[in-house]
Amino acid sequence: MRTIKTALTAGIAMAIAGSLHLDYWTLAGIISMLMIATTTRATIRLALFQTVATLIGLALAWGLFTWIPYAPAAFAIWLLLYIALANLVDLQDTMIGSAVLVLPLLVVKPITMAILLNQLSVLLIAVLTGLVFNLFMPNLTDQISFHVEGVEKEMQTVLRLQGTLLMSGETSTEAQHTLWEHLSGLKQAINEGTAWTARHQANQLFDDNEYYAAYFEMRNNQYELLRQMQLILDSRLAEMPQRQQMGRLLVNMTKATGKHNPIPPQLAAIERLQADLAAMNLPETRQQFSQQATAMSYLVFLRQMLRLADTFDKVVASQNKSS
User: Fold this and answer.
1) What is the CA radius of gyration of the chain?
2) Which of 31, 33, 192, 222 could make a disulfide contact with 126, Cβ separation 3.0–4.6 Å?
3) Residue 194's CB: how many other CB atoms inside 10 A?
4) How far apart are CA 168 and CA 165, in angstroms?
5) What is the spatial distance between Cα 317 and Cα 295, in angstroms, rounded to a whole number?
6) 109-144 burial by CB neighbour count: b if 16+ within 10 A, else e?
């Protein structure tokens, strides 16, 4: 789509400039090609910067090219001053566009207001054509939704596999490797979804909906907690008290996906397990203390993970529905 837009923009910009009988009308095609950025906001930013930079470049050229008769020296000095000013005000990306519009002035004697207005007209046509075409960006919600589904699927898989490990007490390297593969897939889906969301937001000029950005941030925080939970299972699974109850809780959580906000009862179940652990006999050995602390840590991470989802559902998701 970007290739097609670039070709159409260049052709139409040149056609408009030519129909207005502007000098150097072909330059409109080159400048318009430079205006096609990856997102709508980036295009608008580039168009504004290019306009300001070209005004500065033309003013410099008017003075330098008039005072210095030798064209190569005049352009070299112009380039030195322009680059220095561009670096000073962070307009480095505009050098090519400004140079393209300035170069014809080297052979125009004298440089009149008419030729300066001509170059500004060529710039305006190119910038506006590029802006109009780059307002038509593809809708990225389908790609974002695809990664949301991937995140949800991997989350459910990781929770189910952790629950199965807790109930079975399996500590094989193969089982651990499988879980880490799904955790890696979860992280990849979150990262890709975050990237698509950032690109989608950069294409929206007036939409302030932060739902997807907040969603992937919440899932990324949950991933970090799941990773800590898996590290516990890798090292202390067989020693954890009440692991059967924790495993059943995790498996039941994956079955409650379709229900309306099942998190509060799940949080209550976790708190009951925490209360049961706290009510156990005081550990008599260092090993018993370590086992209870490990189980409690796992439940703390699990509870924190659910609280993140609950807060998101009550605050961000509810606001999105109401808007």
Assistant:
1) 31
2) 31
3) 19
4) 5
5) 32
6) eebeeebbebbebbbbbbbebbbebbeebeebeebb
Q: Could you give the CA distance from residue 211 to residue 219 in angstroms, rounded to a whole number?
A: 12
Name the class of domain 141-322.
mainly alpha
Report the alpha-carbon distance of residue 94 to residue 79 in Å, rounded. Answer: 12
Average pLDDT over residues 145-154: 90
Query: CA 248 to CA 315: how far, in whole Å?
Result: 29
Q: Give tens-digit pLDDT for 177-188.
A: 999 999 999 999
Q: How many CB atoms lie under 10 A from the CB of residue 29?
A: 23
Which residue's entry shows tokens 């807060």? Answer: 311
pTM of the model: 0.61
- C-alpha to C-alpha distance for 224 and 105, rounded to whole angstroms: 59
Q: Which residues contact 93 (CB under 8 A, 6 or more apart)?
A: 46, 49
All structural domains of the chain with their residue ranges: 2-134, 141-322
The phi-psi region of residue 21 (left if phi > 0; otherwise alpha if psi is between -120 and 50; otherwise beta) is left
